[in-house]
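Case study 2.
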Amino acid sequence: MLVRVITLTVFVLALFSYSAYADISMYGAFNYKMSHDENTSGVAYHKLEDNGSKIGWDFSSSSIDGSSLGGFAKLEIGVDTDDSGSDTFDSRLAYVGVSSSVGDISLGRQSHPFTDNIGGKTNVFNVYGSSADFNYGVRSSNSVAYSHSANGLTVDALAIADGSSGDANAFDEYEYTISADVLGSSVSLGFADDVVNDISYWGAAATTEVGPITLGTSYTIKDTTTDLAGVEVTAKIDGFTVGYGDKEGTGNYTTVGVSHSLVDDLSIYAETQLTSPDTGIDTQSYSIGTKFSF
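Prediction:
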């Protein structure tokens, strides 16, 4: 543990030294919770644990005079504040890219646009929720990504080449989304193809403001031997949020949460979720926690 801390400290000092040559912004969150969960047999247990603490840096370099080219990079590390696993510091995102007037291209470990732009519309809770969303994955290494916005449309794409398909001429997975503001709503459509396992994913999602209420909806399809659909709906007003999800072949989920900012960067939250599986017994879970974001 001491060696890891020293290594991270040296790395941070190196970043500050490099900041004289590039723009660097730092962000992160320390997040901790206490949960009361039930397993699939209905047996309850309590646990105090980390809830996704992280630290990250965004890097960017200015374009050369007379050119639209620029450079950017991101490094985001998950911090296991409990030191409960083999990786106290775990790579979440790590990529480098080139920006231009025709879009941004980046290589490395990156997040999936299908998950971000489709499932992200209803991913509004701190602990639970987003249980009925079909997608390929959250973050993947060995990836190339492209993003471009023009005329009110944003196109995001990602492809993975990790060699698992055994085909040197094919990507192992690829996906893309198209996003736009339509009649006051933020709308995204997406497709993902898991080439290795011959599984496709389709999705549509939207975020809409109705007075003081923010509504989030998503509909995803997992196209495999038997097509499966997932539906999620959330509603948020001030710090109070409710959600419902129905994942075909799995079950449905009802989630309620409340959060409140104590000061600018520090918030507390409480959430509960009722899980009703298609087979088995219903389970109830709840958590309370606190998060410091910077």
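The CA atoms of residues 242 and 256 lie 4 Å apart.
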